[in-house]
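Need tokens for this chain, all 271 residues.
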Amino acid sequence: SVFGAKTPNSEWEYMTGGSMAFLPVGSVVYQQYINDTPTSIVSTMKNEGYTCVAMHPYYNTGWSRHLIYPTLGFDETYFIEDFDETQMIRKYISDKELYRKIIERYETRQTEESLFFMTISMQNHGGYRQSYDNFKENYYKMGRSYSDVNQYLSLIKESDIALEYLITYFENVEEPVEIVFFGDHHPSLNSNFYKLMNGKGLSGLTLEELQALYTVPFFIWTNYDTPEETIEITSLNFLSTLTLERAGITLPAYNQFLAEFMEYVPAINAR
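Here are the structure tokens for all 271 residues:
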């Protein structure tokens, strides 16, 4: 539902199954519409006996997360001071450090403790125009040079390396593990770059061209056998239902409704 900013709205859509389609333009749910504990994947997992952990390696006051995460029902919250602040890429905690923290918490779990993590990385946060001594840009847009695009592509490569580290670890543990990975939104980059990509830029777009700006990849990976499937289109408000299905968890009534609804309307967002 968002482009270039407002990550918490993506978080909210994923966790609750709600959609920004039904809220006023410009809304930030975390700061306007959460006054008590909503039904969400967090409450579902707690009802299943899971310890629910939120990790965001940045300042806890960002988008009021220090208030919202406990309200959502998370048992534990981890912010920038809980990570190794020497493990930076540019001026943000690296994805690999975030994943190391996940692994550390997993390895210190109690006997028979089941864990649900909701983690929001910071490594690739915009903007992308400043140079940094601690980050070498090795990947470039072929043919033409946009400094912010080059930095973003180089950051994505670092994300790929870190993600390999996370999956390699969990594919070798005995307990069943599911990883759901998705983007909160596309980055805001040089407007000429978008014009190069679609021939128009950010205005005067057809519906299909506009959808491309609001479409991010996702995958669900498990270390246990699940049937391989390709989903051509969905939206974040449906993704937690897909998460529960892949985990073999009985769907609560609202997720049952969403599972049926997505058969008729496969994707819905604020656009």
